[in-house]
Structure formats: C-alpha cells, structure tokens
Here is the input.
Amino acid sequence: MSSPRYTQADQPARFAAAKTAGNARMLTTDYYDPSLLAGKRVAVTGANRGIGLALATELTAAGAKLVALVRQSSAALDALGPSELVTGVDVTDDAACSSIAALVSAPVDVLVNNAGYFYEPVERIDDGSLNFKEEMKMIDICALGPLRVTNAFFHAKLLQPGARVAMITSQGGSIGWRTVQNPTGGDYGHHMSKAAANMMSALVAQEMRQHGVSVGILHPGFNKTEMTKKYEEIWEVEGAVDPAVGAKRVLHEVGRIDMESTGKFINCEDGLEIPW
Ligand SMILES: NC(=O)c1ccc[n+]([C@@H]2O[C@H](COP(=O)([O-])OP(=O)(O)OC[C@H]3O[C@@H](n4cnc5c(N)ncnc54)[C@H](OP(=O)(O)O)[C@@H]3O)[C@@H](O)[C@H]2O)c1
Here is the structure.
C-alpha cells in the first residue's frame, strides 16, 4: 500500500495511531543518517537555544561546519565551538541582516531559518485578549525574518546553485487545519505569522528555482522547548519530543530537499505533506 500524501490534522489522534501501528518513522529516529551532513556548511538562525541549539548540536556531532547566527550566544552554543558564530542577528533588523554579507566567510550548503517567536498568552476576540503589537512582532520575526535572512544570503552570494534553504514554519500555518486544530479560533498572531511564512516560503521556492536553490518548508514536529512550555500538560498526549529528537527529524527532511520537492510543506514527524 502506498503511503498517504498528507499527514493527519488531529495531533493526539496522529500520535495515538503511530503508537498503535508501531510507526518507526514517527516513534524513532532510526532512519536518520548523519553522514549526509558531514563536511557540509550549515547556517542556523536562533542557534543559541531550543530547536536551533539542538540542530547546532546534532550538526556538530555529524561533522558539519556550523555557521551559527544569533542575537546573542549561549554557554551551550559556545561549548559547541561553531565554525563561525555571528552575533547581533536580530531577524527583524534590516541592517543586522544585511551585515551577514560581511560576516559569513563563504557560501553555505544549507541555510536553516529557524528563529521564531510565539507570544505566550492566548489571543481571542471574545475575551478582549487580542494584542496587535505582539501580532505584528510575530509576523515580523516568523515571516519577514526568514525573508530578510534569505535575501541577505542570496545577495552576498552565500547561496550558490545546489544550496538548500529550510524554512522552519509550523503546522500552525496550515489554514486548512484550523477547523480541527483551533475549533474555537484564537491565537491569531501565531497562526497568521506562520501562514505568512508559508506563503513567503512558497514564493521563495519559486524564485530560487531559477537560481538552482531548493527550499523546504518544514513543520519541526512538537518539541519540548521554552516556546511550548505553556502546553506542557499535553506534551505526552500529543507526542512532543526532546529537541534532540526533533533536530534529527528536521535534518532528515533537510536531506530530502531538492529541486523535485522544492516548495513542499512537510511534517518532519512523518515526512508527509501538510495541506496549506
Ligand atoms: N517547539 C515546537 O514544538 C515548534 C513547533 C512548530 C514550529 N516551531 C518553530 O521552530 C522554531 C524554533 O522554535 P523553538 O521551539 O526552538 O523556540 P524557542 O525555544 O522559543 O527559541 C526561539 C529561538 O528564536 C530566536 N529568536 C526569537 N526572536 C528572534 C529575533 N527577533 N531575531 C533572531 N532570533 C530570534 C531565539 O533567540 P533569543 O534567545 O535571542 O530570543 C531562539 O533562539 C520557531 O520558528 C518555531 O515557531 C516550533
């Protein structure tokens, strides 16, 4: 039987079905081959903590050359001894992103746009909790941020033909899934920012085709980070993983980005597509 095109919208049901079926692709990382990354130059934004730090750690273990782009470093990132560490990269800052051109020494094989932000309180209309300023901040960081960074890399000739760009967006950007995942609405800024990130990524994929650069649009799965701590009570029900596991899932999908798959929106938990 061929595998379905799309992953399942209902996350608790998705995780329960994986457990019932003993789905090794979702429950293990046995399929992950770090040798694919050995010697590759990989740039990661937000590499100082969370999924970005886990990606940095796994890349280092795999023998990749890590180019870490951060607002400020962390002890854990410093301890990895990145090949290059560029600080001051606030992805909302046009000038800071432009400065990447002078600060990254050579083209990269992969650019991972990972940095993101999710305002903590729930936002709703009916209880008066919308926060428009925070909504603009999420859109700026999650949608414009990766565009600024990708633009800077392209113009600095740091993305040569054959390079890959991984956009870490989220299943939260799927409009089609809102009826299942947000049956009573809410969290406007987060979902708008990730839907905008998906649109941006789809357009970047189209534009970059003619430059030989492929683009993956990746939901990293549910990871136990500071960002999702507010959902701690559902971590075990919905299959949240340690970011060390999430990083392997993401890097496996990074390895599958090519000119055939460019522009696809993929769930790194199972490698299947997510509908827009
Ligand atoms: N965790 C999940 O389950 C999950 C699910 C779906 C998608 N994602 C996406 O995965 C990515 C990483 O998430 P995470 O869980 O690792 O989040 P996190 O633990 O909150 O880490 C966020 C990272 O983004 C950086 N960042 C935030 N604002 C920035 C800015 N203006 N400029 C540059 N860097 C900035 C942070 O750096 P500072 O230390 O400087 O703040 C930090 O490195 C995000 O894009 C997120 O939306 C995560």
Observations:
- Residues 46, 48-52, 71-72, 89-92, 114-118, 141, 168, 170, 219-220, 222-223, 225-228 surround NAP (CB under 6 Å).
- The CA atoms of residues 54 and 192 lie 26 Å apart.
- The beta strands are 41-45, 65-69, 84-86, 110-113, 164-168, 214-219, 265-267.
